[in-house]
Amino acid sequence: MTGDSEQPTVDPHAAGATPIGAPEPEPVHDGRLAPDLRIGEVRQGAKPGTRYVRVTRAAERSFVRTGATRWQATLAAQRPHTGVERFWSDTRRYLFGAPLASSMSMEERLSKIKALAIFSSDALSSSAYATEEILLALVLAGTMHLSLAWPVSLAIIALLAVVVLSYRQTVFAYPQGGGTYSVARENLGRWAGLVGAASLLTDYVLTVAVSVSAGVLAITSAFPSLAPDSVALAVVGVVLMTIVNLRGVREAGAVFAVPTYLFIVGFAVMIAMGMWRLWVGDVPGASLTQSAPPREVAEAAQSLTFFLILRVFASGCTALTGVEAIANGVPAFKPPEPRNAAITMVWMGIILGILFLGATLLAVRFGIVPHEGESVISQIGRVAFGGENFAYYYLQGTTAIILVLAANTAFNGFPLVTSILARDEFLPRQFAFRGDRLAYSYGIVVLSGIAIALLIVFQADTHRLIPLYAIGVFIAFTLSQYGMVKRWRRLRTPGWQRSAAINGVGAVLTAIVAMIVAFTKFSHGAWIVLILIPAIVMVLHQISRHYTSVREQLHMEPGPVVTHFLLPPDRPVIVPVGEASLATARAIAYARGISTNVTALHVVTEESEDTSAIEEYWHEQYPTITLVILDSPYRTFQAPFIAYIDALTVPPDVPLTIVLPEFVPAHSWQRFLHNRTADRLRESLSHRRNTVVVSVTQQLA
């Protein structure tokens, strides 16, 4: 190991060595931690009979002094001790990188350029499938009405502008992040906040599933032979995204920034080339003001009704998914966080508007008709670039990448929201912990697992997943903006009327869209989300109730603090024993040291076992300690043991102490060679009231 000096003990004069048995200088200290002292650790040598002293140098010390009685752990304190731990540590370091100190969190913050790539990839990538969703709904009325996609897109862009302006105000009002959850909980109450949180969590999970499946569709559109492997490709995509995000926010930004901007360039070039071809009349029957005849003729499956128009509008509103991600992740920006987040949000809105409107206009003018097996963007690219050339494959490649990487918006937003929920005690506290790379690892892993399950269940089919997608988004939009209206009316800061008007208009429009999506998509799967969101709310509520109950039960009233227990010297102690061994002897010695009332309990699990040997040994070695022999005709150890101690009469104010003799193998893998009865018994006893469990371990070489 680097930095270790190892010398044979047979050579006491070797430089830096400390012979075994040689006296060490007595340090002057008061018994507390003294990590500035040299530490000599005896280890077995390579040759039989030789031993070494491993001397820890100053650079490898586990602690550094930061005050008179204060110390700080170094990376050396994280050093693994066993072979299995070293293997796991090396694997994690290879996949995710070396651990980062908390003090480096500011260096992990994002610039506007990287933040646009990370938080806007979901919103920007929706331009690759939002137009297709509009056309798929319109084609039900026949190909003659596909031109209505253009006015519907304009209405959606107007809604986008209102939502962007509304969330821009949220960014400044709630720089701590949390978006919908923070706004709704503070201004609308606990239950509204939980509904907003459940909507956000549902939205983020579906973002991963929809984005990855849409990316796979882009790949299979260019390479149809890969279509049977769509689910496998989607799962691999999620796993890769998980690994990259576990490496930390900054590294994820470095990985995702380039593909995002390559996609923007490719999509913009496609729009520019398509407009140029329309301008010069290079598309038969089409121009900037006239649409070409539909490339395929589809008979109307139903008439064009107001209900169908609403469904078309709801389908196209998938273009707005991901807009709220920046407001949720404000703390991830470099200072000044709110200003940088607001600027990034405006950039995102402008770019998304241009890409979405451009794609829709080209689809209408080119006479594109959606059909199974090839995306609408692929069809537009073929016409705009004049066939399957380099530019076309560049477009498909970057589109596939950005659609997969769009899931990164959720991989950043979901862990941030769950960390805030965990700090507010609505989720397990583990979600608030940051991993080695300063990422919220629990949230990332949970998001990945749920998204993979969805991809498998829905066979990575974008069109089956999208109906589940939009409703949670617009519920979150509505709660956030209505909460902002309440906030402006309560605070009445200068210019509050204008701000309240912007949020009010946004709240009304997104509420209408949410109802439209729920109504028109109900039979297509939206009912699942309408059941799932209340279910998540109840789970969050129950978790909060548990934490509240724990806090109340552990609350300490003002008054004298209990500093020690006055336990009687004859308090009951039970020691489960097997065969006579050094581990058993150590446990009995400890038990006798804390009580004069020690009982040894031997459970017989085999009918053929002869207990006379252990009884004779016991009477010779421990004549003052009762050995109870408990026969177990059903060959179990744990249940009879628990039943025995349950039958004991113990005063309610005196805890029953169980002393477990254990031996610890030298290597972790050797633990699997033993039945580990003590582990199972300790787990069972941890749930028993008024019981103290003590493990006395014997380390094996």
Walk me through the structure.
- This protein is α/β, with parallel strands linked by helices.
- 54% of the residues lie in helices and 9% in strands.
- It folds into three domains: 5-74, no CATH class; 110-177 and 208-457, Amino acid/polyamine transporter I (Up-down Bundle), CATH 1.20.1740.10; 572-699, HUPs (Rossmann fold), CATH 3.40.50.620.
- Helix 20 (582-594) links the parallel strand 6 (572-576) and strand 7 (597-604).
- The radius of gyration is 33 Å and the shape is elongated.
SSE topology sketch:
Elements: E1 5-8, E2 39-44, E3 51-56, E4 63-67, E5 70-73, H1 83-96, H2 112-119, H3 121-125, H4 130-138, H5 149-173, H6 180-188, H7 190-222, H8 230-246, H9 249-280, H10 306-316, H11 325-328, H12 337-366, H13 376-385, H14 390-405, H15 407-423, H16 441-457, H17 462-491, H18 496-520, H19 526-554, E6 572-576, H20 582-594, E7 597-604, H21 612-621, E8 626-631, H22 638-646, E9 656-664, H23 677-685, E10 691-699
Parallel strand pairs: 6-7, 6-9, 7-8, 9-10
Antiparallel strand pairs: 1-3, 2-3, 4-5
